[in-house]
Every structure is written in C-alpha cells, then in structure tokens.
Write a structure and sequence with these properties.
Layout: E1 51-53, E2 59-61, E3 74-77, E4 82-84, E5 90-93, H1 96-113, E6 119-120, E7 127-131, E8 141-146, E9 149-154, H2 157-170, E10 185-187, E11 190-194, E12 200-206, H3 214-226, E13 231-238, E14 241-242, H4 251-254, H5 271-283, E15 287-294, H6 299-304, H7 333-348, E16 354-358, H8 367-383, E17 387-391, E18 404-407, H9 415-426, E19 430-433, H10 436-439, H11 461-465, E20 481-488, H12 496-503, H13 506-515, H14 523-540
Parallel strand pairs: 5-6, 5-7, 7-9, 12-13, 12-20, 13-15, 15-16, 16-17, 17-18, 18-19, 19-20
Antiparallel strand pairs: 1-2, 3-11, 4-10, 8-9, 8-11, 13-14
The protein binds ligand TNX.
Ligand TNX binds at residues 2, 323, 360-361, 391, 408, 440, 442, 453, 489, 491.
C-alpha cells in the first residue's frame, strides 16, 4: 500500500466547513461559570487586549489572552495587566517538583528580560505557582492575572508546567529571545481555566531512517512542550537502522545502527543516552513511548544476527526507502528469545507505561504468521509491565486486553479496514489517531515542498487542522479515543532545520486537536492565532513553512 517518493497526485482536499458557532463550553465541573464578558477561545474579539501606560507615555497592549495555542478550555479576559519588572519574584508553594517548574520558568524568562527573578518559597511575589487540591485533573491548571501578579494553580506539577507554557504565550514573542530585550513584559488581565480533552497528545520522531542526536531530540522535546504535547514516541528500529543499545544482542546497535537512509553513518543511543532523553522529556512532562517495529521493518536486526533469519543467512544492511520486505522468522524459537530480551531491556530503562511493537506493513509475513507472532509477543510486553501499542494492523490479529491501536490510514482508506479498527475499539481496544493525510508531518505541504513524501497526498495546514478526533473513525466509540499523535518519518529528513520546517506550522494544530475542547475548533480563528505564533518561532530560531493559508503578520 505504501510506496515511497510517490508521484501520485494528492486526493482532493475536502475539509469540513469550519464551524463558526461561538460557544462557551462547560466541561465537567472544571470550567468557570462564565460571567458577562466571558468568551470562548476561538472567538477572539479584538477588545481582549489590556493596555498599560509605560514609560515614555506610549501605551503597549498585552497579548490577548485568547491567542494561546492550544486554545484553553475557557478564557475570561478583563482587568488590568500584570507587568513583570526587575523586582518580580517567582514564589512556589508546593514540593520539590513544583520548585523545578518555577526554576524552568525563571530559565525561560531571565535571558530576555535580564531580570534576576529569584525563585522563592515565601514572601510576596509577582508570579506564583501553587499546588492545591482541586478539580484540575492530572494536567489542568488555572491562571489568574491582574495588576498584583500572575498566579498559576494546579493539582499536579504537570498542570503548573502547562500553565507556564500558557504564560509564555501571554508575554510578547521577544520573551523567547536569548539576549536582553526592551519589554515591557505585560501579561493581560483575566483568568484562563484549562485542562486537556485527551490524555494522550503525542508526537513521533523516526530516529531510524535518519539518526538524530540526543541534543536534536531535546530540541524537538522543547518544541513539543510549548504546545502541551505529553507523549514522545521514538521509532527506534526499522530496516535502515537499529538505534538503541541492547546488552544481550550488542550487534543490533553496533552493526544494525551503523548506517541510515542514503548510506550515512547512522548511530545509536547508548543506555545512558536513552535515559538522558527519558529524563529530559520527563522534565518537560513528556512520557517516552519506545517503539521496536516488528515483525516487519526489521532488516537492521536481521542483518545483525544471521540466526534471526529463517534461512540462517544475514541480509546486507539496507539504506533505501522501500518498506515491507523484511520479516522476523515467526516459526523459530530464537525469535521469541530475541523479542523477550529486547523488550525486557527496553522496559527496564523506560519508566513510561507503554511499549510500541509496531506491526505495520508486514507484507512479507503471512497473515497466519502475523497473528501467531502478535499472540506470542503481546504477553511479553505485559510480562515486563507495559501496555501494548501497535499500528492499527494489530487489529487484524487479536489485540491484548488494554492494548492500543494507532490508526494511520487515510480519509480514503477502505471501509473494511476502518470497520476492523472500529470493531476492535468497540471491543475495548484504545485508539490513537494519526491519520496520515492529516497529521503525518513528513507529508509535503504542496507539490513544491522540497522535503517529505507524498504517498498520502499533500497536507496543507488547514487540512491538517480541520478534522475532529472524536468522530473521525466511523463506528468507533468516541470514548475509545485516547488522543492524537503527529508522526514525523525521516526518510527525507536529517537535521533539526528540516524537522522544524515539516513540523511547523502543522504540529501546533495536532496539539490543539489533542488538547482543546471540540467547541473551540474553528479554522478561521485558529489561523489568526497560528499567525501570531510566528514571531515566537522567529525568536526561538524555528524555521517554518509560510503557508499561504495563514495570515502571517511578519514580513
Ligand atoms: C508509512 S506509518 C510507514 C513508515 C514510513 C511512512 C512514511 C507506518 C506505520 N509505516 O514506515 O516511514 O509511511 O510516511
């Protein structure tokens, strides 16, 4: 089904008509009972900006509270702005982890403001982070801003962290610069009350087709954190490279990781590297989801150990971009010793709940073998305490209890395939939605995009944003949907500049689909908020595709 570097023309783009309804949503017990003047985000009236007289007499407007991406569940703008000054302190009421969030905020604000911004646990302070029992959920927060200061309140440190991301976006874009900027540093007055629609808001990075260093992965993690993404799926193995050290099968990394697409030198993560990625991700409240793709996409492993092949002969390393030609030997016991060792070692260095076993494009594995293989492998994942995630072909086997299927089909995928996934969802399999012609960040935006692939069509910014995860898959109960993930495959990508160009500006849209209430969904207001992000990307050194669909305000 998948042919790379396809020249097939894209399917006709028929996005749903954007909803224009203005709704102030009450989500569970979480939201404000909105008073007069409250508005739903996405409705973005211009008068939300609060202004303040600054020295020199000129009035500077604070960022409208409604400009945030992902759109908060509820925003109520009004009242005077808070101004961060050289006297501002960051007070944290909470434990050690909350103080770490305070230190993170200080690290963001100090270079551009030039202020000291001490982080304290007592006394008066302009910025307060407070942990408090309350109906915030695991990741929600409330941000209150007024002349006296800004307070972020949450039940968990993750909520404080997400509130801090909102605060960043309420400050001028120049706050993201690494050198001292003039300010003034105003935060508009009002209240943001916020919590996510979905618990799983992911991004995948394919480190197999091209290897990315720990620093490159960290850079991407920082970009994901800006938009409240909380799952980092690492595609650690494929035909072209095995990227994680496994002590009991050392050649996987040292030989299987020694090249990449195009024949470059590849690379792999030592266990210490991987743990550093996990630690860094956790410091940004992202959980790492490691993937070992099986039984196909395994040429790098098959090349490393002849024994894993049915005929006992190791194939050469592979540096092309075809898929579906390799398969582990389902009938050999050594295959399951291998899988057990790999999953055991990987699970031991992964604090997260999930282990992704791939399962896509097993074109050279018979259906019978595929089912047999998945029946053997899923219990191994459970044995090491992890929950199985598999690409949605897993629903063609027997998904284990509690397993999650990641849907990567297209709008045009056949009804039978969609029905198979929907049926599994009805039977309790969870769903992560990654429709390829919506959120595959490696798809070209247009025929002129210099990077990326086009097998799923061209995916412009509106097409990427304009769909509803809750009702996307016909027949699948909305309650089965755990969230949204935007995969970035790297056949054509080998550095951070290229990653940024494909991820921006589509990544924030995928993040918003995962976080924001459906009622805030509106392309016409979203595109204005998206345009307002560009100066931030400029300040952060993130290059992006200047889609003609977005009303950019910068030159
Ligand atoms: C399909 S998505 C694949 C990958 C490719 C990708 C390129 C999936 C589960 N399999 O092997 O890298 O297309 O867009």
């Amino acid at each position: 089904m998948r042919r790379h570097h396809s020249t097939t023309p894209p399917p006709t783009c028929t996005p749903r008509t954007a909803r224009t309804t203005r709704v102030t949503r009450v989500l569970g017990s979480l939201l404000l009972v909105t008073a007069a003047g409250a508005f739903a985000v996405g409705a973005a009236p211009a008068e939300q900006a609060s202004a303040e007289q600054v020295s020199g007499g000129q009035a500077r407007a604070a960022q409208p509270l409604s400009q945030v991406i992902p759109a908060p569940a509820s925003v109520k703008a009004g009242g005077p702005a808070y101004r961060i000054t050289s006297g501002t302190r960051i007070r944290v009421d909470g434990g050690r982890e909350a103080r770490r969030v305070g230190a993170y905020l200080a690290d963001v604000l100090r270079p551009s403001t030039g202020y000291r911004l001490p982080v304290t646990t007592q006394g008066a302070a302009g910025i307060r982070l407070r942990l408090e029992k309350g109906p915030f959920g695991a990741e929600g927060y409330r941000l209150d801003s007024g002349a006296g200061g800004v307070t972020i309140t949450a039940r968990e440190p993750a909520g404080l962290f997400h509130g801090v991301q909102t605060l960043r976006q309420l400050l001028p874009a120049a706050v993201e610069k690494k050198s001292v900027q003039p300010g003034p540093w105003l935060v508009g007055g009002g209240t943001v009350q916020d919590s996510p629609r979905y618990a799983y808001r992911g991004a995948m990075l394919d480190v197999s087709r091209h290897f990315f260093t720990v620093d490159q992965v960290k850079r991407y993690i920082d970009e994901l954190a800006l938009y409240k993404i909380n799952e980092l799926h690492l595609h650690l193995s494929d035909d072209q490279g095995w990227r994680i050290a496994i002590d009991s099968w050392p050649r996987l990394a040292t030989y299987g990781g020694s090249t990449q697409v195009g024949g470059g030198q590849g690379g792999y993560y030592t266990k210490a590297d991987y743990k550093e990625i996990v630690r860094y991700a956790a410091s940004r409240y992202l959980e790492v989801v490691p993937e070992i793709d099986m039984p196909s996409h395994t040429n790098a492993a098959l090349a490393s150990y002849a024994d894993l092949n049915c005929d006992g002969v190791a194939p050469p390393l592979y540096t092309g971009t075809n898929v579906g030609f390799s398969s582990l030997c389902v009938g050999k016991e050594v295959t399951y010793d291998f899988v057990d060792d790999v999953i055991r070692e990987l699970a031991a260095m992964t604090p997260g709940r999930y282990l992704h076993i791939g399962g896509d494009e097993a074109h050279s594995t018979s259906r019978e073998d595929y089912v047999k293989f998945m029946d053997r492998v899923q219990p191994i994942v459970a044995k090491y305490g992890k929950t199985v995630i598999g690409w949605h072909q897993l629903t063609g086997a027997t998904p284990a209890k509690g397993a999650i299927a990641q849907y990567w089909g297209l709008d045009s995928t056949g009804a039978a395939e969609k029905a198979q996934v929907a049926q599994a969802a009805q039977n309790g399999t969870g769903l992560i939605l990654s429709p390829a012609d919506r959120v595959y960040l490696d798809m070209k935006y247009t025929k002129d995009t210099p990077l990326g692939l086009a097998w799923a069509g061209y995916v412009e910014v509106q097409r990427s944003y304009d769909w509803d995860p809750g009702s996307y898959l016909p027949g699948a109960p909305a309650s089965a949907v755990r969230g949204v993930e935007a995969p970035l495959w790297s056949e054509t990508l080998s550095n951070s500049t290229q990653i940024d160009y494909m991820a921006f500006p589509r990544l924030p849209g995928a993040a918003e689909l995962g976080w924001s209430p459906a009622a805030t969904h509106d392309w016409n207001t979203y595109k204005v908020r998206l345009a307002a992000q560009a100066p931030r990307w400029d300040a952060l050194g993130i290059g992006y595709y200047r889609s003609p669909q977005v009303p950019w305000t910068t030159d």
